[in-house]
Amino acid sequence: MFKLPDLPYNYNALEPFIDETTMHLHHDKHHQTYVDNLNKALEGHDDLLGMEISELVKNLDKVPEELRIKVRNNGGGHFNHSLFWEIMAKNDTKEPVGEVKEGIEKTYGSFDEFKKKFSEKGLGRFGSGWIWLMPDMTIVDTPNQDSPLMDGKMPILGLDVWEHAYYLKYQNRRAEYIENWWNVINWEKVEENFKK
Ligand code: MN
């Protein structure tokens, strides 16, 4: 069975950029629902229920076809959110570190330019989806709960641009949510993901 991971910090840790009420709703309700629906969809498939979520998402072709859309949406949701909580933190390091810093500067010229490109991608994603930084420093976006991992590529940083991620605090102002999100990135964790 898949299990909702605890947040690696308190629900209010990302205030004032991401508020406590949103974190409760997003983690306890939305993420929990992906986990519950995934477990329900895979009932009786003990081999699939025993996999790591990253392995399952990477190997959707192993899922019986009639369950595949449910597993894609809810397994993707479980994997994406698990990564999302990890790459955030109450943070004083407002800039990338280590090899990620080097990679970003080499690819985009500066961190500011990278932020601009990434934010533009976030604003440009129509409807719901995610924006990702990949180990090769490209910026990728996916619709719904799809993940680059479904093509075998593990992202190192991800931004949830579903309305449920920001609507309570920012209403329809996605740009403001994204701008504030840059304050809560755990760049040490992103560096760790890169090295893996
Ligand atoms: Mn979400």
Question: Would you write up a description of this structure?
Answer:
- The longest helix has 22 residues, at 20-41.
- The two termini are 25 Å apart.
- The protein is globular, with a radius of gyration of 16 Å.
- Helix 1 runs antiparallel to helix 4 (68-86).
- It has helices at residues 20-41, 46-49, 53-58, 68-86, 98-108, 111-124, 167-170, 174-181, 187-195; strands at 129-133, 139-143, 157-160.
- The mean pLDDT is 97.
- The protein is built from 9 helices and 3 strands; from the N terminus they run H-H-H-H-H-H-E-E-E-H-H-H.
- A 3-stranded antiparallel beta sheet has the order 2-1-3, with helices on both faces.
- It has 196 residues and is mostly helical.
- It folds into 2 domains: 20-86, Fe,Mn superoxide dismutase (SOD) domain (Helix Hairpins), CATH 1.10.287; 98-195, Iron/manganese superoxide dismutase, C-terminal domain (minor pseudopilin epsh fold, 3-Layer(bab) Sandwich), CATH 3.55.40.20.
- Manganese (II) ion binds next to helix 1.
